[in-house]
Amino acid sequence: NIRFHRDVRVVANELESLSGDLQGTEVSRQKDIYNAILIAQGFLNKKVAFKRLRKRSPDLIDEYASFTIQPRLDFEAHAEFSKVLKIIARLKEGEANPEILSLAKNRLEFLRREVESKNIENENLMKQVSGSPVLLGEEVFLQHSPSKMFLCANLEALSASKSPVELEFYLSEGMSFKILKSGETRPADESSLDVFLYSCKADSYLT
Fold it and tell me: Which residue from 8, 131, 163, 185 has the fewest beta carbons nearer than 10 Å?
């Protein structure tokens, strides 16, 4: 069974290539890479990458590779706040009209209170569903346990030099994933389950 709030590891059974390590250093393209674990530092480093651990260090896995499954959270206020924050940054770079800048800052302050209110609602929702089963095909968020940031599809990653997923603090539609059953079958007594991780916003699978 897959349940909300359960610590999980995102493991790719097989990859065609790896394009980065924990520090973002490029790795040469390789084929037939198995059992690569999704790893992220979080906090100031938003980069996420699949990394094959030749020596499975429990400390490294607990520190960097632990995610919890959360319900689909209300992200509208976060998304609007992030949008206005970027607008203000652009206005400050140029010679913005002081009145326009003031209006943007007032809007940002209003949204800040909205975000704080939604954070409380989201926290209550996460507590409410904790321990309940996750239905295959249900939209979920994946939270990086050490940093409390969320896995987010990077829709601007059109080149191989950018990661298709990152960790983000402000909630957005890109954080919505579905856990879909793969065609693989396992013995009934095994605790692991082969699934696909599907990004709703990017309309693609995490591989």
Answer: 185
